[in-house]
Amino acid sequence: MLFSMFYLIFFAGLWSWELRFWFMMLYSFIMMKYFNIDLGGMIEFIFFLDKISSVLLILSFWTSGLMLLASYNCVKSSNNKSSLFSLCVLILCLVIFLFFSVENFMFFYFFFEVSLIPTLFLILGWGYQPERLQAGMYMMLYTVSASLPLLLCLVFLSINMYTYSMNEMKLMSVISLNWWWFFGLFFAFMVKLPMYMFHLWLPKAHVEAPVSGSMILASVLLKLGGYGIMRFLSIFSFFFNYKFMMFLIVVCLWGGFMTSLVCVGQSDLKSLIAYSSVGHMGMMLGGVITGFMVGWDGALLMMVCHGLCSSGLFCLGNLIYEKINSRSMYLLGGMVNFNPVMSLMMFLLCIGNMGAPPFINLLSEVMLYISMYMYSYLLIFFILIMVFMGGLYNLLFYVTVHHGQIMSFMKVSCMNKSNEILLMMLHMLPLIIFMLNLGFVSKVM
User: Which GO molecular function annotation, any one, does this entry have (predicted)?
Assistant: First the structure.
């Protein structure tokens, strides 16, 4: 597979876009065999795959293929450096694949940082407005500066333990690290996730990025932080008191509530979807910190659900932008009368985003809420607020766009192309199909 990716990177023929697209879509199906991977994982040379990394790898390949499908109108049809664009997406997919599959600490850190470079090129090269320079600078400064404590901690621990291997350090980890080590190791992942208070780079990057940049940011790059937190919590043992962990969970849930309030008063389509990511990822972090098995399973499931659902909403926002040339929700209304197919798609994705049946999002949120209630019954107050606010801003989002007074220029949006409907269906089908067999998320720890 790696040799195929290297060949496609240096391939510059006439069909380079199509070959790269079909490679990523086919390999997302071929890699489904890793759903049945052994609980102990699989080591091959410097690569290590287990339940967590294999599921996120399949998500990465799937979303990378959908990125090329979503960008067909704005890049391929308009001939906007299409070969270079598909090369950027393929390199980003390769870097993410290596990040999820290496077990050496230095390679882990290296690919964690290198994933920023293709993303920056996507934002700067194919973004919409001049503010994309400021957004790219924000993203680089936030993530690179937060990663320096992680590098120092990893080097110091590896020198003391005489190994750079994650699996060896997991067996040797007998010392209990205090909360200074916790912030040193996890600060970079909290910014990447992003946790509330470290999230200011995310709405800027999302708003200025092209649709493919927003998709890969929401679907995969935020999951690098979640994967790092789950991996490090399984390797290192930390000595905490109950109050510190409780404070951390409350900050995650309170951040979700505050960003939900921002979503309710938001007028920009992409900003609303970007802020909703902060709430979902904060909930996922709270479930992981509780340490319960059901919390870890729910967190992994939440990462997959959010990746597909948020990516689909960004695609829909981009379709509306391409048809109307505006992302303002004040200029939208009554779209259900002219484009009922898009209205149905958006309704399904909105109820998926708020965690309603028949999607797998419902199960992930229920598992996370159970783990937090098991940790402390006092958290039920925050959980109820999160459930209410999640339903509120998603329904407001749908009603504002598709109901109400019909704008005079909305008639331009009545035509749907087959590739647009296919793109939406490819986002929603996994969310429904995985409800038939949830065995792949069981026994994560």
Answer: NADH dehydrogenase (ubiquinone) activity
